[in-house]
Amino acid sequence: MKRVNNLRWSLFFLAAIMLGFISACVDEEESENRTAQLSWDLSSIPDGDLSASSGSLNLDVHWAYTQWIIKVEEVIEGEDFVQEFTPRVAGSNTIGSSTTRVAIRYRQNDTYSDNVVKISLQASDGTGEKFEMILTQAGKEFVPFRINLDQNVTYQHISGFGGGNMMWGTDFLDANEIKLAFGTGPGELGLSIYRVRLSPVRNDWPAVVETVKEAKKHGATIIASPWSPPVSMKSINNLVGGYLLEENYEAYANYLNDFVQFMAEQGAAVDVVSIQNEPDIQVSYESCDWTVGQIYDFVKFHGDKIQGAKLTAAESFNFKQSYTDQILNDPDALKNLDIVSGHIYGSGLAPYPLAEQKGVEVWMTEYLMNQNSGVDINNWNTEEAVIWEETMGMLQTIHDSMISNWNAYIWWYIRRFYSFLGEGEQGTTRGQTLRRGDAMAQFAKHVRPGYTRISASLSEPRNIDVTGYTGEGKLVIVLINKEAESIPAIELEIPEGFDTVHATVTSLNQRQNSVDVTTQGGVASLGLSAKSITTIVLE
User: Fold this and answer.
1) Known InterPro entries for this protein (predicted)?
2) What is the value of pTM for the model shown?
3) Which one of 107, 242, 266, 274 is most buried, by most CB atoms within 10 A?
4) Per the residue annotation, which of 177, 188, 214, 278 is the catalytic one?
5) What is the pLDDT of residues 130-173, one digit of tens each?
6) Active-site position among 177, 188, 361, 366
């Protein structure tokens, strides 16, 4: 019996061994047939563009014995609009023929441009064939809006746009730089006002003659600003600080007049002379303090001694209207004042109704934006995008000056790395214009002295500033697009009597570039670049 049991156990073990052998053979055969497979079915993908609204779509991924990933491989145009893939990663190395449905959710397109992406499907380890498809989402529908002009509604006349000479030293703008700044040819900036320093030292006067003469060749208006009277006339024997002694008011008026007469004799006539640069701020450089009452007394009792040039006051640091209100309200004092002026550091950019009521021009005679590099030149960021963003801020102040009915806008130095012409610092090249200069040219080159601002608006609210001007038989429209995307089309009905329409644009990537303008049925149409300034001229 024992012998029989042993035999049974022997047969059992032998059967087990045979089954194991057979199973191993089967597993080996199956393993040899576990070929990775991967493909997708795109029949559910629309042939045309997806709509601009958000939505979802499905596709089937067929696979076997592989792990895989589906993803946005590349953004070809616009933005990545795919919100999520569900699932994004799936599959298995141990599971045979299977199908997984992938849901693709996408977000709304809030721009007018198409979004185009490349989607890929591939094994997770990067082996095997990569499947790709292009998915396009249309931009949102755009309905063109219009510029509305009314030439019968007029505002201030324009005296010009300008900038300053180097105020100290003698390295003033040369003939080539003057031409770049004040010329109106291709690539030039078209400035029309040149601000120079009226030195408190007579022996310095001849140094500024040649640069002024060059500017006058291009029709520039010259404004001369003193930073301090001669020290002999002040309360302290120093060019910095102190005040003009009252007993020297007449002598100082004669001093200003002497400068005007000297420049005229040299063929470099000054058109406007100021009493004092920034009388209301204490600084560590050449300066002089004036109270409101002192400015009033000087203008009323001594302003008439300055002959051959218009007189302006008070060039306040942040355009305090109180500095000239008393003069404007006194007919005797007002007879001696032609222009009220100021700067807009920190504040002061606002309409001046009293000056308008009295028929006195309002000039903004100095402003600068330099990323605080005046404190430390290394604060200047040379990235064009950063510079352009600040330049858009400069353009905003010009626009605000215009809609405040101001007659002139004058920047600080014309030649400086943060200004209109390079001087060799911070990556600039002397003798070359800068993009910020081209931005200013969109106003200065086309809105000329003597033009008049007219009513201009848009047919719908947009983050776009618009002003219109007329002069010399032309209509000029300046548009500052502050929106982060381009505008496909803006329309303008061409008024009777105008035959041609042309436009230029300056932006992060353009510098006084021509803009394509189409006309049909008496309507002109053109696009606006993102964050740009565009000037349209009708003749």
Assistant:
1) GH, Glyco_hydro_30, Glyco_hydro_b
2) 0.85
3) 274
4) 278
5) 999 999 999 988 888 999 999 999 999 999 999 999 999 999 99
6) 366
